[in-house]
Design goal:
The structure holds two protein chains of two kinds.
Chain A lengths: L1 H17 L3 H21 L3 H27 E7 L8 H17 L2 E7 L3 H7 L4 E6 L2 E7 L3 H13 L6 E6 L6
Parallel strand pairs in A: 1-2, 1-3, 4-5
Antiparallel strand pairs in A: 3-4
Chain B lengths: L5 H23 L8 H18 L7 H22 L8 H33 L3
The chains are: A alpha/beta, B mainly alpha.
Chain lengths: 176, 127
């Protein structure tokens, strides 16, 4: 019985290291700590086994998954005034952003809103905001986000739209 | 993670009181069965994580939880000083009372601490 659990622990730890998909690695780690909790139980240490099962396989798995979720999504707000259709330049920008997101292995989340810039700023879960004003595209992004610098470089190289675009770095405070 | 599925919400809200019961069982029987303050507190913190998953409103008073945690820490410091150093643990029931009360204090403190960690991580920490 113990040998079986030890073998499973070795297998799952190797799987967790070897897999390329991070989400799968997190699940393997959860299973690994569950099996190690069983082995603690076989060594007559139920106290440690409970702690390992709760912390190793539940809490840390949930925290890792939340961290992965936060890291993966790249959220873009496209603001437009009412009754004003999106210009073709805007679509070009969205296509360029799709290519950028594919390159960085993120998930793109585009949201079209009719809100003002200030109202979107209050929502506080954006990565960049694109605003169209007087045939110019304004891109607002958080200066502390490290994806934003890469995006700026990528757009200056690849996005050759006829419209001049301005990149503004917006420093958001650290207060809650 | 932002939308709450109705099936998940229903199922987890059924499991809610059982987790509460299990956590308090682990805490209160910490001195005779495996488990104790820390483990029971971690189980109780799972309630707040489930609350994050099933309710649409995410606002929680973290300031109040921090104050509770600090007060409990003070109590954990004060209780051994008052009981042990005054040599009041002469009777058997006093020892049991001391263990159970210390386990309860530690459990609720750990619950507050883990909840603060989780909610800060989920709601405020950005990239």
């Amino acid at each position: 019985m113990q040998q079986l659990f030890f073998l499973l622990m070795i297998i799952f730890s190797i799987l967790a290291v070897q897999t390329n998909i991070l989400r799968r690695a997190i699940i393997y780690l959860g299973v690994f700590s569950l099996i190690s909790s069983f082995t603690y139980l076989l060594y007559n240490a139920p106290d440690v086994a409970i702690a390992e099962a709760i912390i190793g396989s539940t809490l840390s798995t949930i925290l890792f998954l939340v961290a992965l979720k936060k890291y993966k999504i790249f959220r873009i707000y496209l603001t437009k005034t009412k009754g004003h259709h999106l210009s073709p330049n805007n679509n070009d920008l969205v296509n360029a952003l799709k290519k950028f997101v594919m390159k960085e292995e993120l998930e793109l989340d585009v949201i079209y809103t009719s809100h003002n810039l200030e109202e979107v700023l209050k929502l506080d879960d954006f990565d960049i905001i694109v605003e169209e004003k007087n045939d110019q595209l304004y891109i607002f992004g958080d200066g502390t986000n490290y994806h934003y610098e890469n995006l700026q470089k990528y757009l200056q190289e690849d996005f050759t739209g006829p419209v001049v675009y301005n990149c503004l770095i917006l420093e958001t405070g650290d207060d809650e | 993670m932002n939308n709450c599925d109705p099936i998940v919400a229903k199922t987890l809200s059924v499991a809610y009181p059982f987790i509460l019961l299990f956590g308090f069982y682990i805490i209160l029987n910490g001195h005779i069965t495996p488990g104790g303050g820390f483990q029971g507190g971690a189980v109780l913190a799972a309630i707040f994580i489930i609350r994050y998953l099933i309710t649409p409103e995410k606002n929680i008073d973290l300031k109040r939880l921090q104050i509770i945690e600090k007060v409990l820490y003070l109590c954990i410091m004060l209780l051994p000083i008052l009981l042990i150093f005054n040599q009041m643990l002469a009777f058997d029931w006093m020892k049991q009372f001391y263990l159970v009360s210390m386990n309860t204090l530690i459990g609720i403190k750990v619950c507050c601490g883990l909840t603060i960690i989780f909610y800060r991580f989920v709601l405020f920490e950005s990239r």
